[in-house]
Amino acid sequence: MAIAYPTLVSVLTTDTFEEWRKKTNAMIAHTEANKLNMGDVGLLSTDDKFSVINAINEVDSHTDSNTALIGDLSLLVPDILSSDIVSAINNNYTFQKNNTDTQVAAEETNRKNADAVLQAELDLTQSSVGILANGTFNPMSGSAYLGDATSLQSAVATLDGVTKTKSDLLDDLIKSVANSARFDWTDSTVNYLTVELDGKANVKKSLVVLDNQIKINTNAQVLNTIATNQNLTKITNIISTLGVADANGNMVVDPRNIYATATNIKDQIKLLDDTCTNINTKLDGPIDLELNSLQEQINLRATNAIVGDISDLNGAIGATTVVGAINDLYTLLRPFLVGEETLFVRKVGDTMTGTLNINGGDLNVLGAGATTAVSRKISCSGDIIAYIGS
């Protein structure tokens, strides 16, 4: 409670000592009251303690500064507006706490939901990548290349190495085909494969074409093999029928032959031709004379004792009389006597008609186009018998 100040009255020059004393004591009481009301300046906490005014001015200056720093409380948002800063701060605390709790709870819910989605995506990613649920690498046992991989990085490194190897192989394959990785048959001639308009070829189509052609060739080869085997069988049968060649088709001279001793059919025919020529010469000459003489003797010796038993004649002579037998023999010898060309081919210029059968052997004919006289011949691995069958 403030102390009342005594009334001060100015001291007059005409005042008595008593009046002067009262006025002086009133001034002293006023000073003491002022001291009590104002307090001890030395107890001020302000920096300036020279006077209360200075201290108040200092506080006023601080107040102005604080007001400037704090701002006008009326400008606070309605949620925390108050008449003093402490209440405003408390209002702000309550607002922030409630708002923070709400936001944190919402954020917690959102984070949990997002974490659940993220976990599901992580689980799906791990499953897709092949990682176990605890995040460790799942060994790929039985894999062609990654059986020893212990991590995705090592698996990728292994695949990279394998891919590099395959890539190098593919590059080499491309180089062996063409720079465009396609068969380039430009300016090339192909027999079976298809060529595209730009000179490139489709490998798959070409392989199919080759496969079809191989099938055709294989079928044809099978038919050729069958035909060859049939021909070999025929040749073997011909060799066997002619009886003039060994298993390799080489001519073998029959040791029983007297005249046909050559090692080829042409020379054999020449030997036989020469022999027939000699026979023909003999038939035209001495034999003919002997036959005439024999005819005369037969005519002279008609008795059975001189002629002999007709049944002893060779079976090739089917006559039952001597005359008939002589006529049969004459019929057989007549081609040699008169040189008839219809039954025997015996000299240059003769012509044979009818069918020539070669059984069990081979007949090689080399015409005038051969390079040597010796090669212009008919050769065979056995005897050649040419005649017209009746």
Explain the overall architecture:
- The protein is mainly α and 390 residues long.
- Among the domains are: 189-228, no CATH class; 243-380, no CATH class.
- The protein contains eight helices and four strands.
- It has helices at residues 17-38, 52-70, 85-129, 152-177, 203-242, 265-300, 304-307, 322-338; strands at residues 183-184, 200-201, 363-365, 378-380.
- The protein has a two-stranded antiparallel sheet with strand order 1-2. The chain has a two-stranded antiparallel sheet with strand order 3-4.
- Helix 6 (265-300) packs across helix 8 (322-338).
- The longest helix has 45 residues, at 85-129.
- The chain is rod-shaped, with a radius of gyration of 74 Å.
- The N and C termini lie far apart (184 Å).
- The relative contact order is 0.05.
What portion of residues belong to β-strands?
Answer: under 5%
User: Pairing-aware structural class of the strands and helices?
Assistant: mainly alpha
Average pLDDT score:
75
Q: Report the span from N to C terminus.
A: 184 Å
Q: Provide a count of the helices.
A: 8
Residue share in helix:
40-55%
* Element pattern in H and E: HHHHEEHHHHEE
Query: Can you tell me the overall shape?
Result: rod-shaped
Q: How are the strands ordered across the major sheet?
A: 1-2
Radius of gyration: 74 Å
- Largest β-sheet summary: 2 strands, antiparallel
- The low-pLDDT segments are none
Number of β-strand runs: 4
SSE blueprint and pairings:
Blueprint lengths: L16 H22 L13 H19 L14 H45 L22 H26 L5 E2 L15 E2 L1 H40 L22 H36 L3 H4 L14 H17 L24 E3 L12 E3 L10
Antiparallel strand pairs: 1-2, 3-4
Helix pairs in contact: 6-8
